[in-house]
Amino acid sequence: MEETPPPASHHDANPLLRASNPQVSTLEQDVLDEYARLLGNVNKLESKLADLSGDPSSLTLDGLRLLERKTATVCTLLKASVYSIVLQQQIFNESEEQARADEEEQQFRERDDSQGDFLGQGEGGGDEGEGGYYGVERDVSFG
């Protein structure tokens, strides 16, 4: 609501509202001016409310229905935007987790391969060649 300047008749009717009054300090004059503006705004509001009460309520209801539809549309669009952002974040997080898991699996395989070399099993992991983990198979006779 816009502020309206006080009508000039208020200043003329009340000598305390005149800026030239020596009995009123500057601060008091400012307060009185604000009260005069407030009175003008209240009077303006009163006239608007009187106009609205004179209008048929169907026009007011139609305006409110239109406002409700627009508000519902904005709310739906906002929810869709939030859902899209949440979904994108979830997809991003899942892809990061998958990349991290793939990296850990690669590190595990590299570490496992290097431990196989340390144990003297060579590149193949020790299950190829002469007997794999258990060495060369030979006939063992007892007796």
From TrEMBL:
The Gene Ontology CC terms held by the record are: DASH complex; microtubule; mitotic spindle
Superkingdom of origin = Eukaryota
Q: Where in the cell is it found?
A: Chromosome, Centromere, Kinetochore; Cytoplasm, Cytoskeleton, Spindle; Nucleus
Q: Which InterPro entries match?
A: DASH_Dad3 (IPR013965)
Please give the biological process terms from Gene Ontology that the record holds: attachment of spindle microtubules to kinetochore; cell division
Q: Where is this region: Disordered?
A: 94-143
Question: Where would you say this protein principally sits, based on its record?
Answer: nucleus
- GO MF terms held by the record: microtubule plus-end binding
Keywords per UniProt: Cell cycle, Cell division, Centromere, Chromosome, Chromosome partition, Cytoplasm, Cytoskeleton, Kinetochore, Microtubule, Mitosis, Nucleus
Keyword DNA damage carried by entry: no
- Compositionally biased residues, Basic and acidic residues: 97-114
Please report which protein family the annotation says this sequence is part of.
Belongs to the DASH complex DAD3 family.
UniProt protein name:
DASH complex subunit DAD3
